[in-house]
Amino acid sequence: MSEPTKFEYQIQILEYHLDTFGHVNNAVYFELYEQTRWDFITKNGYGLKEVHERQQGPVVLDVSCRFKRELVNREMITIKSQSEPWKGKIGRIKQEMYKADGTLASDATFTFGFMDFAKRKLIDPPLEWLQAIGLAE
After folding, report:
1. Beta-bridge mates of residue 108
2. Is 66 helix (H, G, I), strand (E, B) or coil?
3. Burial class (CB within 10 angstroms; exposed 0-12, middle 13-18, buried 19+) of 10
4. Cα–chain center distance at 120
5. Which among 98, 61, 63 has a CA at the least distance from the CA of 78?
6. DSSP strand pairing (76-87 vs 6-12)
7. In this predicted model, what pLDDT tens digit does every residue of 53-73 receive, in sequence order?
8. In sequence order, which residues have a C-beta less than 8 Å from that of residue 1 and are 6 or more positions away?
9. How far is residue 86 from each of residues 31, 57, 123, 125, measured CA to CA in Å?
10. For the chain, the helix, strand and coil percentages under 3-state DSSP, each to the nearest 5
11. pTM of the predicted model, to two decimals?
12. What is the DSSP letter of 90?
């Protein structure tokens, strides 16, 4: 695959996403990014069911996140996600949140390991995982 697949997810900001200032709480950004990742990996065949059956799945090791523009109540946003090539047991997924007018509101890079939960150690990700995150056909 020459270029990793890009995934897009749309969601409306709702009242429960807000803090006392009337904009999205910083912790909610991480929830929205995670909701997006679960959506595309599930649609691509490696959701919670597969994680439980195999006892193998992704674990977040590190995150770098920037907040560029505020998100407010009832605003529609688009979250774009793209994996970077994995190197052994470690990989990264870059995610960006865009306001309806196309303005970048936030971006984050998540560093993941792929864990065998029975052995409690990181392992090389299987082909099915690489397919789910858009790195293999």
Report:
1. 65, 95
2. strand
3. exposed
4. 22
5. 98
6. antiparallel
7. 999 999 999 999 999 999 999
8. 134, 135, 136, 137
9. 23, 14, 12, 9
10. 25, 45, 30
11. 0.94
12. E
